[in-house]
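Query structure, 282 tokens:
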């Protein structure tokens, strides 16, 4: 039951979509508080996000079931989301800048979600998690136990009721099977030098090439490594005075900013998948 909720949908472009949606909500005593729409002229599809309120408790399952005939008429992919904050499972390895930023925003109430637990393949970040009263779960990963470790990860997603998994500098490549199991609900962050500067010490490579921009990309996780639909990117201009260590510092800032925005927008149901891309209603 909820008194405020979000409806998101996409469908082939045609006339009557807005009228059909607004009429359905009006007939059920719902008031539209925020409405955003994007018409994709290239893909000939419409994307819509509307935030709705009611002066009484609304059964979202019943509302969704009643909306199905409307959705069928317009070939809509749709979802209703209640006002419960999304639960996030954060995964990290040794670098703590993204985890620290997410914890800060969560405790400040600006993340738009609740962090349920922290999972890591190392023990380094336990003090940071436990200082925030968050469960810290150490799941070691080796060449021999990787399938078991990923199975444990998926178990933890269910155990903690996680709506979203955030790879906050988690330095392990997930298997295709796990990526598919988490499709649309796992976000990764990487420095935007990929694929230009591959391998070890990318910031040293960038320094030698005299880069003028440092950035980061937050994207959904897919079996294609670092090629999932992009949610957010952050870019910071630099110059020749930045040595590799300074570049790393700027890069960490860019990663934390891009990742926190992507997490918040996803959890506020502002991100809709559009094939290999996304529509983000800010």
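Result returned for the query:
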């Amino acid at each position: 039951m909820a008194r405020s909720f979000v409806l998101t949908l996409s469908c082939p472009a045609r006339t009557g979509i807005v009228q059909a949606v607004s009429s359905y909500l009006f007939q059920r005593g719902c008031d539209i508080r925020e409405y955003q729409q994007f018409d994709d002229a290239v893909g000939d599809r419409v994307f819509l996000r509307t935030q709705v309120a009611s002066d009484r408790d609304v059964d979202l399952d019943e509302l969704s079931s009643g909306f199905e005939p409307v959705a069928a008429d317009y070939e809509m992919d749709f979802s209703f989301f209640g006002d419960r904050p999304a639960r996030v499972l954060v995964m990290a390895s040794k670098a703590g800048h993204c985890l620290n930023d997410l914890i800060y925003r969560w405790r400040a109430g600006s993340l738009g979600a609740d962090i349920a637990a922290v999972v890591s393949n190392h023990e380094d970040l336990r003090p940071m998690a436990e200082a925030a009263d968050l469960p810290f779960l150490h799941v070691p990963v080796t060449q021999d136990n990787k399938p078991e470790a990923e199975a444990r990860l998926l178990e933890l997603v269910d155990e903690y009721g996680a709506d979203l998994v955030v790879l906050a500098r988690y330095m392990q490549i997930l298997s295709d099977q796990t990526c598919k199991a988490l499709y649309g609900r796992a976000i990764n962050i990487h420095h935007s030098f990929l694929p230009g500067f591959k391998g070890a010490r990318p910031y040293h490579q960038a320094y030698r090439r005299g880069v003028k921009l440092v950035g980061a990309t937050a994207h959904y996780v897919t079996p294609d490594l670092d090629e999932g639909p992009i949610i957010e990117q952050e870019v910071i201009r630099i110059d020749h005075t930045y040595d590799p260590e300074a570049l790393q510092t700027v890069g960490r800032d860019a990663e934390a900013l891009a990742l926190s925005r992507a997490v918040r927008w996803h959890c506020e149901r502002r991100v809709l998948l559009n094939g290999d891309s996304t529509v983000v209603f800010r």
